[in-house]
Amino acid sequence: MRFLFALAALFLLGTFSPPGTYRPAPPPAVSFVRFEPVPLDSGDPERRRLGRLTFLGGWRLSSNDPRFGGLSSLHVEGGEALAFSDSGWMIRFPLPSAGAEVKGEIRLVADGPGAAARRKALRDVESMAVAGNHVWLGFERRNVIWRYDRRSWRSETGAAPSEMRAWSANRGAEAMVRFPDGRFLVIAEGSGHGGPALLFAGDPAVEGTPVTQMRYQPPDGYRTTDAALLPDGRILIVNRRWRLLEGLSAKLSLLRGRLAPGAVLHSEEVADFHRPVTFDNMEGLSVTREGGRTIVWLTSDDNYSPLQRTLLMKFALE
């Protein structure tokens, strides 16, 4: 049974997404997001520690809207979660509170690469950065980065950086971080032996922005799925691994190394997600502050599959 589950997970972690993801049936008049609490460890419901993280809450998310799911990027701000799916849907909803159900918003951005297309390959958003009223989206397979106005969701500019053109179609801009000085770090999903990392001197959605090329070496056999900037300037990275006999696992780590031409960046483990800990295909990461504490939010991509879950997990980084 474990072998069959692992085999199914391998299939789901590829490019699979059922035809229902794109069916033209009209969405519901109102989209709801439901929250079902989950523990950090079902075998030890009182458990709160995982590495350097303290568990503050976890929820399994569901919706009456078939467009909900596939969350591959996450931004938490002002009591609200903004996410994008690997099918190009913008998904926005209030954070879990006392209620078990909230109204959400699900829509396509007004324009951009493949916005009106039904093909997943043209709409696969895997990374996001937010600053003020601007949002940058990294489109996998197209290997492009577009900038949007967050109020209107109209595109402002887009670019296909030459340094990204040779990236694998299914291992594109998986993580994107914007620094306060306007620089951007973009990391490819790569392979289990690492992948390209690019430091843009300015806006990556503008053609011709100078780029410094590096590589990121994740933990053994893992691949990058997202990154976020901590208040102290360090970079937190989510790394995911799939192995035939063990299935999925994930590691949260801190980037180590100087951002310099040709550098090979490594990371230091913060937390290791493996059974019996509650987790799934972890792909979205966001960092906020609460009462002087650094809060880490993680979400998972269920690949629109009944065999997987959309999770939202909240931790304090100690």
Q: Rough shape? A: globular
- Our count of domains comes out at 1
Number of E strands: 22
On the 0 to 100 scale, the average pLDDT is 89
Q: For the record, what CATH class applies?
A: Mainly Beta
Q: What is the terminal-to-terminal distance? A: 38 Å
Tell me the radius of gyration: 18 Å
Helix/strand/pairing category: mainly beta
Question: Count of helical segments?
Answer: 1
**How do the SSEs run, as a string of H and E?**
HEEEEEEEEEEEEEEEEEEEEEE
Which fold name corresponds to the CATH topology? Tachylectin-2, Chain A
Give a short account of the largest sheet: 10 strands, antiparallel
Q: Beta-strand percentage?
A: over 45%
Low-confidence stretches: 1-12, 14-23
What would a concise description of this structure say?
This protein has one helix spanning 2-12, and strands at 31-37, 49-50, 53-63, 71-77, 80-85, 89-94, 101-108, 125-131, 134-139, 144-149, 155-159, 173-178, 184-188, 195-200, 211-216, 223-229, 235-243, 247-256, 264-273, 282-290, 293-300, 310-317.
Write up this protein.
There is one protein chain. 3% of the residues lie in helices and 49% in strands. The chain has one helix at 2-12; strands at residues 31-37, 49-50, 53-63, 71-77, 80-85, 89-94, 101-108, 125-131, 134-139, 144-149, 155-159, 173-178, 184-188, 195-200, 211-216, 223-229, 235-243, 247-256, 264-273, 282-290, 293-300, 310-317. The strands form three sheets. Strands 1, 2, 3, 4, 5, 6, 7, 20, 21 and 22 form a ten-stranded antiparallel β-sheet that branches. The protein has an eight-stranded mixed β-sheet with strand order 12-13-14-15-19-18-17-16. A four-stranded antiparallel β-sheet has the order 8-9-10-11, with no helix packed on it. The longest helix has 11 residues, at 2-12. The chain has 318 residues and is mainly β. The chain has one domain (2-317): Tachylectin-2, Chain A. The protein starts with a helix and ends with a strand. The chain contains one helix and 22 strands. The model is unreliable at 1-12 and 14-23 (pLDDT under 50). A hairpin with a 7-residue loop joins strand 18 (247-256) and strand 19 (264-273).
